[in-house]
Amino acid sequence: MCNYCGCREFPLIGQFATEHEEISNAAGRLREAITKGHADPAPLLDELLALLMPHTCTEETGLFVELRAEGSMAEAVDKLCAEHDDIHGVLGQVDRAAPDWPAVLAALDRLRRHIDNEEHGLFPAAVITLPIPAWDRLTS
Fold first, then answer.
1. Residue 136 placed within a domain
2. Most buried pick, 24, 100, 106, 121, via CB within 10 A?
3. For residue 59, is it within any domain?
4. Which domain of life is it from (predicted)?
5. 54: domain range?
6. Is 96 helix (H, G, I), strand (E, B) or coil?
7. Which residue, among 19, 23, 20, has the nearest Cα to 45 in the 3D structure?
């Protein structure tokens, strides 16, 4: 996770970064359960989804709305939303009777890249791009 640019000083970005860490840890536990078989992956998948779904909803209905309105990052936001849909689609539709764990592992890889892109690309850029009134709307 990013610690060098100061974007975490913005309360919403700090919240998202904390959630990313929790999501990454949950994804790691799920990956380990799938690959090493030390635990039943299904409850760990549920744990990950319980963290992931509200997080992405908050991103998409808050920060992403402001970034789209500002305009210069709309294409990047659209790409990130498509990645949300893709990852949610795989993780949220696992057939519990016959899970496709390789597909889940691939989605976890995409999730890791997605978080990295937000942490090291989108969030620092948002801090620079969005005007103060946008941040006021996001934190009120």
1. no
2. 24
3. yes
4. Bacteria
5. 9-130
6. coil
7. 23
Q: Residue 58 CA to chain centroid, in angstroms?
A: 10
With both helix axes pointing from N to C terminus, report the angle between 11-36 and 41-58 in degrees, rounded to the nearest 10: 160
CB contact set of 41 (below 8 Å; sequence gap of 6+):
30, 33, 34, 99, 101, 104
User: DSSP states of 11-53 as a string?
Assistant: HHHHHHHHHHHHHHHHHHHHHHHHHH-SS-HHHHHHHHHHHHH
Assessment of whether the complete model's pTM goes beyond 0.90? yes
Domain-embedded: residue 45 = yes
Asked whether residue 137 is assigned to any structural domain, the reply reads no
pLDDT along the chain (140 residues), means of 10: 58 91 98 93 97 97 96 96 98 95 98 95 91 90
Number of domains in the chain: 1
Contact 16, 118 (CB under 8 A): yes
CA distance 29 to 42: 11
Rounded to whole angstroms, what are the CA distances from 91 to 53, 57, 96, 130? 10, 15, 11, 32
